[in-house]
Amino acid sequence: MDVDDQELARFMEATHASFDQAQFFLEASGGNYERALSMFHEQSAGGAQRATHPPDVPPRPQAPAGSTGVRRRGAAPPAGGAAVDAYNPGGGALPPPLQLLNAVLGAPLVVVGGGVRLLVRALGFGARLGGAVARRVLPRRLSAALGRAGRALASAGAEVAPAAAAAEFVRQFAERYGDVRPRWQECGWGEAASRAHQEGKFLLAYLHSPLHQDTDAYCHDTLCAPELVAYVNQHFLCWGGDLRRSDAFRLASSLRVAGYPYVALLAFSGPRTRLITCVEGRMAPAQLQEVLQAGLADHGALLWQEQAERQQRETDRQLREEQDAEYQRSLEADQQREAARAAAAREAEAAEAAARQAAERARAEAEAAEAQRAEAEAALRRRKSEKRLALPEEPAAGTPGATLIRIRLPDGSSHQRRFVAADPLQAVYDFVDSIEAVNALQYSLATTFPRRAYRREDSAGKSLLELELAPQAVLLMQPEDD
């Protein structure tokens, strides 16, 4: 969001903060000057100033009895807590000349506003270059002030992704406090909350104020105590964030943190986040474990309910999947049966069609054979009638040159007739064609001894005498019809 330049100047004048700090606190507070000022003092050292709570925020849970000297949710900050400037580790106020110098360096940035980031980075580079020269020619305190201003300019507008900020925090925490530590998640706190929700655990969130006077002792003596580390790693999902990064600072703002060091136990039910308990200020490892254990005991039903609901959802999901799978299998079986019935119907229809075609072919063949037979019979009848009429008159017995021809049929019957020796062989064929018992359209005549065949077309024009069939002969009729 855009921050009013006058508010920036007013905040920098009141807190002696850099431009980057002023813009960060005003943006985090939504442009509310009083709240930004309160946040600044809260982060610095848990000073007497506190953020004003909106009316819809529920009251903070009180600390358990007997925890005197320990800051918890709703407890007052320690007396005499002095504000610690993130860019003035000594904690004291700058002398008037340096205050004036800080205001002069910040004034141009207030004028141009937060939108001209390229100019800010250019000024930051110039400040770093000037700082290198100033360390050689200026007094130590003045050059330190210039260095802090240069670093503020160089980092102005820099935004670190939540995952990168978490990885940076884990690395720096391990380097400073050792390997015995909570198993911090290397992701943004929103992603850590999602993981805790999925695993059915509370999220232990630690907000790290590196310049706070109690931070180092708290991390060494409490957070890295072996017994506490084993306990939190077993029961919670742990996430830590450096307040100098926006992800952790936004979480601190949403939790309305009143003092540091700060540890909160968060629970998640669906999209909602619930604060179970929190501890503000230093606390011994055993006491902190007791508070966390009490929170887990008092509110573990949330986890059990969430786990039961998750288990019920998983059971319902599995049941739906099984029902869907069973329905799919039943559907596939029905489809297979339907396909089998359709295939059998097609096969039966094809067989029936083949049978009909075969019957039709057989009927057609029978009809064709019947027609052929009828036609053959008609042709035989016509030929017999025609041949009878065409036969020459049979010569009487004893007529000179008469020849007796006997015809033996395949059925064993025989027929004879007299011909003139000069008659052609066709006359004999005409006689055979006229015999009622002859049922062949195609046939040939042959003698048995000597074996000789007399075909109609081969013997055309030859007389019986020339064919040595006179004065008598016996001929066998040999049908040649297919």
Automatic annotation (TrEMBL):
It is found in: Endoplasmic reticulum. GO terms for molecular function: ubiquitin binding. The keyword Protein biosynthesis does not apply. InterPro entries: FAF1_2-like_UAS, Thioredoxin-like_sf, UAS, UBA-like_sf, Ubiquitin-like_domsf, UBX_dom, UBX_domain-protein. Residues 313-349, 358-380 have a biased composition (Basic and acidic residues). Signal peptide: none annotated. The keyword Thylakoid does not apply. PROSITE patterns: UBX. Residues 398-477 form the UBX domain. It holds the Pfam family UBX. GO terms for biological process: ERAD pathway. Keywords: Coiled coil, Endoplasmic reticulum. Residues 43-83, 313-397 are annotated as: Disordered. GO terms for cellular component: endoplasmic reticulum. Gene3D superfamilies: DNA helicase RuvA subunit, C-terminal domain, Glutaredoxin, Phosphatidylinositol 3-kinase Catalytic Subunit, Chain A, domain 1. This is UBX domain-containing protein. The lineage of its organism: Eukaryota, Viridiplantae, Chlorophyta, core chlorophytes, Trebouxiophyceae.
